[in-house]
Amino acid sequence: MKEEILLQLKDIKKSFGTNHIHRGVSLELKKGESLGLLGGSGTGKSVLLRSIIGLENIDDGEIHFRNQRIDQYTEDQMLVTRKNISYSFQSGALFDSHNVFENLAFPLMEHTNLDYRQIKEKVKEMLQLIDLPGRETLMPSDLSGGMQKRVGMARSMILDPSIILYDEPTAGLDPLNTQNVVELMKKLKAKGHASIFVTHDIPSALQLCDRIIILGKGIIIFNDTPEAFRNSIDPEVSKFKSQEDQIKGKSYGH
């Protein structure tokens, strides 16, 4: 049986003035698949995620979700699409003046007809999933950086989207909290969520992802399995493999 293609990017081009970020980026994301998106600073990894959900306008090319072209959608149409394609911000992006329950309940109150009892139950389920049960009344300032990221991820997936776009979810975390976040991402993958994982954390990408994609010089310069990534002798890929070795050395004290 042919796997369903959820998302297609066709020859995406994007510039900021004379700075050409994307010169023709094309990729596909299948149902339940996780893509690791690597690239040096300034290669437009986060810009690509923001373009997918309409926070950036592309200059040329096409973006399709479930065979519908979405790059030409109005803001109202994109609001509906964002229930199915969720963006997990690097910082967690929690509302500082709202407690954990209110942060997680917000999308449900905005976009569903669930009553308070149902919302309370859904929030409780999410907190179990992210291994933070009973933390409903804590404020974001009461949470560690790793906890804030997990609550932010929980909020991004509480509407049960088809695709989650992760923007550097392990950035700035120690090895233990990094592994907690990766384990959560694995749980979501097991529940059938497709994802694009923008990261500099190559060991985590290799743990989680079905394919590794490298952006460079405005195009995709590598798109293959983690095994092919590990075995590649391409000089561009080797740069990233040496980064992986450095990260492992720091993590394990070698």
Summarize the structure in words.
With 254 residues, the protein is an alpha/beta fold. The chain has a single domain, classed as Rossmann fold. 41% of the residues lie in helices and 25% in strands. It contains nine helices and ten strands. The strands form two sheets. A six-stranded mixed beta sheet has the order 6-7-8-3-9-10, with helices on both faces. It has a four-stranded antiparallel beta sheet with strand order 2-1-4-5, with helices on one face. A hairpin with a 2-residue loop joins strand 4 and strand 5. Helix 3 (100-111) runs parallel beside helix 5 (145-157) and helix 5 runs parallel beside helix 6. The longest helix has 18 residues, at 235-252.
Summary of the model, kept short:
The protein is α/β, with parallel strands linked by helices and 254 residues long. The protein has a single domain, classed as P-loop containing nucleotide triphosphate hydrolases (Rossmann fold, 3-Layer(aba) Sandwich), CATH 3.40.50.
